[in-house]
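In the lab's daily routine, each protein ends up as an entry in a very long ledger. A line of letters takes care of the sequence, but it says nothing directly about the fold. The three-dimensional part falls to structure tokens, numbers that each stand for a local backbone shape. The outcome of that step, for a single protein, is printed below.
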Amino acid sequence: QALGVYLIGDNPLPMQCAVVKADAKGGKLTPEVAIVDTKDSTLLVSGTVSLADEKMDLTLTTRPKDVSPMTLRTPVHLQGSFDHLQVHLEKKPLERKVLGAAVLALVNPLAALIPLIDFGDKEGAGGCQRTLQRLHDADGPAGARDAKAPRAPEPSRQAAAPGPVRK
């Protein structure tokens, strides 16, 4: 895909969905859930953003939805201050893919392509709708009940009910 961007140019990739649920304490934001979903992949975000110190330490991980041949996909780390943000690639997944390709190249040069193929997961990667459902489902994971906004009492019932309300 990077070769296609290099040859043809970059096209906008619209988001289909974005979900963020973060815990905010003392000027520090920690996402419990942070997902950006596009037609090609799902981007998951973890880490912290400190508004008090104006620093961030985030990890961006992409889950493809379709088969990608010749991929060197790896998590991206965004670290440092807002003014001097540093971008780092996680090296271990890259090293494993390159080492696997080198070893398989000794067996057969075409076999070196096997570690570079990313088969994707169309069902597992699309996380927005599933995550939204879990956040709104009272029987969902821990913390899901907190994601629901409390219902306002209906005025007609309160006005009609004489005396204390029993539960």
